[in-house]
């Protein structure tokens, strides 16, 4: 794009932006947009940004202003990969993320009796020079966990702290929207508390189950593509003997119990199920937490390895007097929308999982949330600076820029991978562990790491760099 001459704008009303969802994508967008606040000020462009989040806050602990600790129990490890790392650097949060990165010493596969099938990634005394992998045999862990792995709550906290004190940015917790109507002039919103307001732009960053998506697209249901796997995450108290490695216990029926330990006092557990179960599907699509837990307990009940402890821990999670209240379950799905905006009005736009969830099975959801936030902010800023406050062109360019990357990521063969790593029978599990042992001996992990690097490089999608509201691709 040709360089724009910045002209001070005439005095006008502030541009009002509502961001729905204070997960990863929403605050990443606001943080990215703040990189342009200097230029906006120079040009006398005013903005008012409100971020609403339907989860409420727990007062008393936590970070910075207002002692918000709603991110304390907010999910488990998430990965930042490829262009997401670059986006995080450009947003200026790389050091903060590095400080709170989770360092896992390896991965262990067990069978249903808890007998070790194979172990990867023993420490070999590496250094910070290898990109921070700290002792991992280079390439071996790639594909299962990465060097930029962080607890979701820690990333929320970093993004929140970086945005909460920004001028003209305000957060509202415990708030959602109940109605959203867009017109060529504005987006009119009715909030869950009955208040009404109008915005120049509404950003739907409210995750895979997005309310904004449902309100602006009459065919939102057709955008939901299940990938054939469901997950339940929760935290339980640690006990002696818990492993620091990511531990995957494979069970017949395409089930696995996975544990990870980022802190001494607790163990992160997730159940993964890639079989068919109509009752589970039904409760995941609309049941209460109690019903969901009951179905997970039915599927994972039994005396396999530590199933009794994990099921009990899941049922206790969130109960009165318990430390951990973070049960989170999902039927994994991709969101495939043919457009991310509200038709020609372009007053509402979807961001992150809300518009293009690739499913956690790809390990790329957080990456797309960060990259999406960066690109949307860059394009909006460019449009505002060069078009006298008009955001429509920015939304159009955001879609054009990001779609090729989303297409590549959503095209990953996640269903096939899960068929391979979650066998249906005991014999399949023995075959998987044997294949992994062979792979380890033949250093296949290194090869896989090499292939993943090549594939990521071949995608060749370059993160646009935006300087002062001008695009430099
Ligand atoms: C509680 C929770 C735990 C998670 N745990 C994991 C995990 O352990 N591992 C993993 O890989 N991924 C996890 N994810 C998903 C992961 O964070 C996302 O896939 C990814 O980071 C993309 O980020 P996002 O901001 O687009 O969506 P999300 O991170 O899902 O953020 C969406 C935000 O919008 C809020 N929201 C939803 N509906 C409304 C509404 N109607 N009004 C206002 N706010 C709303 C949500 O509470 C959330 O804060 C979790 C998501 C959530 C919400």
UniProtKB/TrEMBL annotation:
Organism ancestry: Eukaryota, Fungi, Dikarya, Ascomycota, Pezizomycotina
Protein name as catalogued: Kynurenine 3-monooxygenase
Residue spans crossing the bilayer: 15-37
Molecular function, one GO term: oxidoreductase activity
Pfam families (UniProt xref): FAD_binding_3
Keywords for this protein: FAD, Flavoprotein, Membrane, Oxidoreductase, Transmembrane, Transmembrane helix
Biased composition (Basic and acidic residues): 130-143
Spans annotated as Disordered: 119-143
Domain FAD-binding: 85-409
UniProt source species: Podospora australis
InterPro entries documented for this protein: FAD-bd (IPR002938), FAD/NAD-bd_sf (IPR036188), FAD_aromatic-hydroxylase (IPR051704)
PANTHER family recorded: MONOOXYGENASE, PUTATIVE (AFU_ORTHOLOGUE AFUA_8G07040)-RELATED, OXIDOREDUCTASE-RELATED
């Amino acid at each position: 794009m040709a360089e724009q001459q910045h002209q001070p704008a005439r005095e006008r009303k502030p541009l009002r932006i509502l961001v729905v969802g204070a997960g990863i994508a929403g605050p990443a967008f606001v943080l990215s947009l703040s990189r342009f606040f200097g230029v906006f000020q120079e040009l006398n462009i005013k903005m008012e940004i409100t971020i609403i989040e339907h989860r409420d806050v727990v007062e008393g602990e936590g970070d910075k202003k207002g002692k918000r600790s709603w991110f304390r129990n907010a999910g488990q490890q998430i990965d930042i990969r490829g262009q997401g790392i670059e986006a995080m650097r450009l947003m200026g949060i790389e050091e903060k993320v590095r400080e709170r990165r989770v360092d896992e010493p390896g991965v262990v596969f067990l069978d249903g009796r808890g007998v070790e099938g194979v172990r990867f990634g023993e420490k070999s005394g590496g250094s910070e020079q290898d990109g921070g992998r700290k002792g991992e045999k280079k390439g071996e862990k790639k594909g299962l966990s990465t060097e930029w792995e962080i607890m979701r709550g820690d990333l929320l906290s970093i993004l929140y702290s970086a945005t909460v004190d920004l001028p003209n940015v305000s957060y509202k917790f415990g708030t959602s929207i109940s109605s959203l109507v867009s017109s060529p002039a504005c987006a009119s919103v009715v909030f869950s508390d009955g208040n009404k307001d109008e915005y120049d732009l509404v950003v739907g960053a409210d995750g895979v189950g997005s309310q904004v998506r449902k309100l602006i697209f009459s065919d939102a249901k057709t955008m939901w593509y299940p990938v054939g796997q469901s997950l339940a995450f929760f935290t339980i108290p640690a006990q002696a003997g818990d492993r620091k490695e990511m531990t995957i216990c494979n069970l017949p029926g395409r089930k696995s119990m996975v544990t990870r330990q980022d802190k001494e006092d607790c163990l992160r557990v997730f159940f993964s199920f890639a079989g068919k179960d109509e009752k589970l599907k039904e409760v995941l699509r609309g049941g209460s937490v109690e019903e969901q837990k009951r179905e997970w307990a039915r599927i994972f009940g039994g005396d396999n390895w530590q199933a009794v402890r994990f099921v009990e821990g899941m049922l206790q999670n969130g109960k009165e007097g318990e430390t951990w209240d973070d049960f989170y379950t999902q039927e994994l799905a991709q969101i495939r929308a043919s457009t991310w905006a509200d038709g020609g009005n372009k007053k509402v736009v979807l961001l992150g999982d809300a518009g293009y969830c690739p499913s956690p099975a790809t390990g790329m959801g957080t990456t797309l949330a960060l990259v999406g936030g960066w690109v949307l902010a860059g394009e909006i800023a460019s449009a505002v600076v060069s078009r006298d406050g008009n955001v429509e062109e920015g939304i159009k360019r955001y879609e054009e820029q990001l779609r090729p990357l989303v297409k590549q990521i959503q095209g990953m063969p996640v269903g096939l991978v899960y068929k391979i790593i979650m066998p249906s029978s005991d014999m399949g599990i023995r075959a998987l562990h044997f294949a992994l042992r062979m792979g380890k001996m033949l250093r296949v992990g290194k090869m896989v790491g090499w292939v993943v690097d090549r594939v990521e490089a071949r995608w060749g999608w370059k993160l646009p760099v935006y300087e002062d509201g001008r695009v430099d691709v």
